[in-house]
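User: I'm writing a tutorial on reading structure tokens. Could you give me a worked example: one chain, its sequence, then its tokens, then a sentence or two explaining what the tokens reveal?
Assistant: Sure. Here is the example chain.
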Amino acid sequence: MNILRNPVIAGMIVVLVILVAAFVGNHILVQQNLEKSSTYLSYANELKALAQEVSKHGVSAAGGNMTSLATLSESSARFDTHLGYLKTGNSILGLPGLTGEAKSRVDQLATLWNETKSYIDLISSNQDAILQLKDISAVIAISISAIQQENNKIVSAMLRFCLLYTSDAAD
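And here are its predicted structure tokens:
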């Protein structure tokens, strides 16, 4: 026990304990920041996938596909949720919103998303009109096909008439 009474050794033990505690504290902070960063990246990757879904289903829904319209609405809501997590955080996970340059980038994304969201809402609110247009375009396609068939008959008749006329003129 004489060793602990030596002030130099006792000081070194205190410094060692402080360094170990600092190392453990640093490790815990780094781990927490790593978990936050991982969660932020997960949200950002989810936004990337949802943006592709919204693009794909938006075109299809605008063409009158009702299944795509439902998927578009669902993907849009999920995009809103994940964007909100990046902007304001996720209180359930104790995750704060982004700050600094990342926040300004998310704000730019939010501005673009709000514009896109207005188009999605327009598609959703006009689904009946879109379905009517789809039906009308099908009727037009059938009518155009019938017109083309009649036009082919007219061209054939005119060719026969021209051949008959030229052979009569040659005699």
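What the tokens reveal: The two ends are 139 Å apart (CA to CA). The mean pLDDT is 86.
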